[in-house]
TrEMBL record:
3-keto-alpha-glucoside-1,2-lyase/3-keto-2-hydroxy-glucal hydratase domain segment(s): 36-218
Domain of life assignment: Bacteria
Keywords: Signal
One MF annotation (Gene Ontology) recorded for this entry: hydrolase activity
Name of this protein: DUF1080 domain-containing protein
KW Lipid metabolism (keyword) present: no
Keyword Transferase tagged: no
Stored PROSITE patterns: PROKAR_LIPOPROTEIN
Length: 222
């Protein structure tokens, strides 16, 4: 009987330890909690987002934002960091259909219509007639190479630290730009300067269709 009790106690202790170990492992594997990433899109609604003209260019399909239609921009206006980001990491899973063009803006601000004047656009384009390809810092430091294919999900990430912008495709750095001190832009690009602001997704034209999901941000210290 004594041996049986010892055996049972050992089994119970092993079970408790195993459960504890599994719980710890599960907790450690949670990237959102461990790495500080915060979701900006719930996959179901446009809560926290705002679009002006041509709002119909943005729809939710199967947990993703489907962008397709006349020129429009969907701005993040939600509570995370009061929608004002200076130093950060921003990423999204993206899929382009053939011939499509779109973009992700940062350091921008809400604008009712037309192309945002403030901030920068990071290009999303794998086969559109515009030669500036995915990961271009549009008209500032462009990329001619194509790193990903249409009809396939990929991850596009933007990191800003101080004056440096780093753009990754599927965790690979493909574009790095450091803004010079006292940079002087042409008049029509006067507000394309490192500052702070929010993010926006671009509807480029009715023939372009692009999907975005798992939109995340990690705020970095100043």
């Amino acid at each position: 009987m004594k041996n049986l009790l010892v055996f049972c106690s050992a089994v119970l202790l092993f079970g408790a330890c195993s459960k504890s170990s599994m719980t710890a492992s599960k907790s450690a594997s949670s990237p959102k909690a461990e790495k500080g990433w915060v979701s900006l899109f719930d996959g179901k609604t446009f809560d926290g987002w705002k679009v002006g003209k041509n709002a119909d260019s943005f729809k939710i399909e199967d947990g993703a934002i489907a962008v397709n239609g006349p020129v429009g921009h969907l701005f993040y206006m939600g509570p995370v960091n009061d929608h004002n980001f200076k130093n950060f990491q921003f990423k999204a899973k993206v899929m382009t259909l053939p011939g499509s063009n779109s973009g992700m803006y940062f350091h921008t601000q809400y604008q009712e219509e037309s192309w945002p004047k403030k901030g920068f656009e990071v290009q999303v384009n794998n086969s559109h007639t515009d030669w500036r390809r995915t990961a271009s810092l549009y008209a500032i430091q462009d990329v001619k190479e194509t790193y990903v294919k249409d009809n396939e999900w990929y991850t596009e990430e933007i990191m800003v630290q101080g004056k440096k912008v780093t753009i990754k495709i599927n965790d690979k750095v493909v574009n790095e730009y450091t803004e010079p001190e006292g940079v002087d832009r042409p008049k029509d690009m006067a507000d394309r300067k490192i500052s702070s602001g929010t993010f926006a997704l671009q509807a480029h034209d009715p023939k372009s269709k692009v999907y975005y999901k798992d939109i995340m941000v990690k705020v970095l210290p100043d």
